[in-house]
Amino acid sequence: MDKDTFKPTLEQAEFLFKKFPNKTLREWASEWDMSHENVRLMKKKLGLSTRGKVVPIEQADEIIAYIQEGKGTINTARTYQGYAFGKQRFLNWLDENPEYKAKAEKAAEIAYDKKVNPTHKRCIVTGEWLPVSEFYKDSQTMDGYSRRSKKAVKESVAKYYYSRNNTEPQVSNKTCSALPELGELPAKYFHRNRRLVSGLQQYSIAFQTPYSAYLNSDNEYERQNAHDLAKKEALIYFAKEGFTPKI
Q1: What are the residue ranges spanned by the domains of the chain?
Q2: pTM for the complete prediction?
């Protein structure tokens, strides 16, 4: 044994263990010229982890903050990018440090609450952070709001609507929005609309014509009941053409 080999006191060993938390028991044993088991017993006596590399406190704080901000979860690989340890070692460390385990669980709760009850969210199209009131409702997402802002949706719709120029019908049959019970009707029963995907108006001519007339009537009853009156006329017309409600 080298007479110059450093033999730390328990107090010195505690200081060094905390200063260099990722040094293994074997490395300490070699440096201090003592057995691996003796080093393990020293750490155990000091109440320190004996499971090889441990997690530095400042790095644990960074990971917990990362989780709380919703950037990653305790189970996602990206949460541990750039660190000398991974998920399993961090979980083991948390088991040995109940205070930090509680912090991690609280961080996950806060992140989850922000996701399901946000006040703001980022539009995936523009990248803007906006109040949730600027997004349409969407039951398919975790927070209940669309991933695209209202502005982005409207701009997208306008772009495709005004760039569309269907000079001929794109379908041979279409369902009249006011008369869905009739099913699909031949394209000849609709006016053209080059801005719509089908190249046809959403309402059939037999409905649209009386509907417009009733809406502009001087009779208040006809204005208030324009849709029902026009539908009645349209059903009579299509019955004569051989189209009846499908039951």
Answers
A1: 118-161, 165-240
A2: 0.43
